[in-house]
## 1
Amino acid sequence: MQQFEDAVGRRTAIDQEQATLLVELNKMKGQIHNFEEARQGVQKKIEDAATSHLEPQSNKNHYTKKLEDETTKVEANEAITKQLQEFMNWTSSAEEYCERVEYPRKVDVVERTLESIQKVLKEREHRHGAMVDEMTIEVNNVKAVLDSVEKELRSLAE
């Protein structure tokens, strides 16, 4: 019996010690749980802050790229508009010299004609040893000299 009482006494002491340890364990688990909740709250705030920081940056990059794309389109349209305006100016200047002749030729026909004319002009340059522009300038200079000599002759004849 003595043995039984000793065993019960030890068991009671162990149970009391275990009860205090269980209270401490539960207190620690509560602290760990509170810490985890606080950590998750802070982590959520950090993620939200990072997201709120990245979203405007992403929007800025998106709209910057969109602006560049639209600027490129505008520049292309302006170039087309400028070319069209030059064509209209050229057409109006050409119509001052003569009436417009509607002759719908295909592009390849016009290119072949242009190439053949350029070949003929180059052959003429080789034969005459001068370019057509140079010959035109020379003819204009000689004509100016001729006109001045004719004026002098008229003034001498009077």
Note: The CA atoms of residues 47 and 53 lie 10 Å apart.
## 2
Amino acid sequence: MGIEQLSNHEETKSITFRLPKRILEQVELEAEQNNVSENVLVRQILTNYVDWFRLSKGIGMMPITKESLRKLSEHLDYTSINSIVEDISSMIKNFSTIRYGRYDLSTTLDSLSMYIQMSNSQLVHLKEGNTHRFLISHNLGIAWSLVLEQLFKSIFGEFIDNSQIKFKTTDDSIIASVALTSLA
């Protein structure tokens, strides 16, 4: 096994796996379709497993189709939205504590970003001075945009004043601009 350094100073090790041919063929196809090497794809798969999937089972996550979630979201009222936000906030807090061994603004931000990405939504995080902008496209309707808006208020409200958060919300997306001097 060889050891090499990545640009982010994370130590790596080389290892060989014996896998069924059908799995390797699917990995090769997926890598080709995404214009990445098999090594990059396998690294992404293993990273997602270690950083998210292995922990998500223990905190009550389960898969649901996007269309099912969209249909369920159509009937949400204010009370239901608040209840969902409480559940997701609690899950993110637990996930941060389990994954990082602490719960602070930085680990919460990482966990929230991971949750949004693993929920099959697109997330772009832009930093402009002390302002962090989170652009989220989810295609789940206005109720889900309101869930995300309340989620940001709930999570960041533990660390900063909610007056430092501004939102632009549409039916299928949300932009949250947050003044985060401690993460700039």
Note: The mean pLDDT is 86.
## 3
Amino acid sequence: MKPTNFKNDQIIFAASVPGGFSTVPEDDFRSASLANQIVSEAGVGGLTPVELDKLLAGKLIGVSPSMGLFSHGIRGSSTPKDIESALQAMYLTMTQPNKRPESFEVLMERIEAFVKNRSLDPNAIYSDRLTEINTKNHPLFRPWTTESLKEVDPDKALAFYNKIMRDAGDLRFYFVGALDVETMIPLLETYVGSLPTTDNGPPKVGKVRMEFPGGITKNVVQAGQEPKSTTTITWPARASYDEMEMFNMRLATDILEIRLREVLREALGNTYGVGVGYSYMPPYDGYATTVVRYGSAPENASDMAKRILEEIKKFKAEGPTEEEVAKAKELEQRAVEKGLEENGYWLASLQTLGLLGWDANRVLARLDRIDEVSAESMHKNFKLYFPEDNYTVITLMPKESTP
């Protein structure tokens, strides 16, 4: 529990544990990945969502299961006076999901309409192709189609839901906000302490073999008519969960973004914006990437990619300037200081640390690690990233355009 005084009417909470969809056989993945929505549509405790909303009328409560590829759990929000009702709703959500075939049919009709509309969206087409290339068409990341929707079995979905939600023995619960510890303890003993457990042992992330494509891959996706392009350059990154290495990786991308914004937007003036990021999937430690994404006029996309790759090569050879590092450190310090006064930041941080098995007190040390960064240390770390012989360049172009 993390009592705060940031908002006197807010308590947010979450529980999570490694596992998620990765734990099911490949043939059942489609069903498992919709378990969340199927239960949310059907309701819990014998009540439909509409009936539950009426029962909780006047209370500021939100509770929903949380399921991802490599972790699962539950999350919610409440006010101090409604926290017991929120915990009751959490208990029902985890232990008493409804089975309502009629709600499943309604849900699938809605999802099918969404899938059909999405297949016409140029940005969705581009995103799907980008994912396909960067994961080597891994089955767990393939987009939904009207055909793949037919693979969903509501009974398998509910069985998966019950299996993971009715085993709370290894869930880590986090409560942040305007809470009183003495008031919370008996409530947690009642509603968290009574959640069912099994003797299955600690859950584990499923054996998912994800690979970034080797060599250099370039691909153009032609979709839509709007006269602009989007380009994404992606590199494989080290996926070791060492806290300082992860921090250095993220800060390196921040510094590179500062450099590229100056070079591309201010110096050349023909890009719509550039962003640089580092992506990983805790607690899975087998896949991570660094990404540069920018928008430009279609006729400039190829030249921009060349300029970015040249700048990164120069960055690795010479390192960042003291000014660039100082600016990135200042931005990071402001972000951390702001975050430390927000309930959402604390909850997300505690969850991530818990999934990685790290000490929760590390949140308080985040300002200290900024002081350890220098231009020299960032140059040393930057040499480990952005391999010159292994990356992908995927560009979205309007139809009948050439890069």
Note: The beta strands are 2-3, 11-18, 62-67, 71-78, 172-177, 216-222, 229-236, 271-281, 284-296, 391-397.
